[in-house]
Amino acid sequence: QVQLVESGGGSVQTGGSLRLSCVASTDNSYMEYDMAWFRQVLGKEREGVAAAVRDGSTMYADSVRGRFTISRESGKNIVFLQMNDLKLEDSGMYYCAADLWVGQESLNGNMYKYWGQGTQVAVSS
């Protein structure tokens, strides 16, 4: 069982920055989970934004590569998403997801079992 709680969303102007955090609480703290961020805008499909698998590797959507950075605390199921140079199209509800083994398909939301409730990001001019 994994409980995910996201935080850090808010309103920001274009070009600004936000730092999202996700804490995964488990009853098996010795296990490390692959974790990722997804976002969704009303009327559009869920988009994989960034992923941090437990071996330390990361993956990014083309739309955010170079602007967003995913990181995690070593040995813990805590993940961050540093979002810089935010654009209007970055607005949306951001969700944290986790599962034990995702690997190369870490930006595919169908690979994740556990999801948080989301934190809203609103970017304006």
Furnish the topology, listing elements before pairings.
Elements: E1 2-7, E2 10-13, E3 18-26, E4 34-40, E5 47-52, E6 58-60, E7 68-72, E8 78-83, E9 92-99, E10 114-115, E11 119-124
Parallel strand pairs: 2-11
Antiparallel strand pairs: 1-3, 3-8, 4-5, 4-9, 5-6, 7-8, 9-10, 9-11
Q: What attributes characterize this protein structure?
A:
125 residues; mainly beta; four-stranded antiparallel β-sheet
Structure explained in plain terms:
By secondary structure, the protein is mostly beta strands. Helices cover 0% and strands 50% of the residues. The protein contains no helices and eleven strands. The strands form two sheets. Strands 2, 4, 5, 6, 9, 10 and 11 form a seven-stranded mixed beta sheet that branches. A four-stranded antiparallel beta sheet has the order 1-3-8-7, with no helix packed on it. Strand 5 (47-52) and strand 6 form a beta hairpin. The chain is globular. The mean pLDDT is 92.
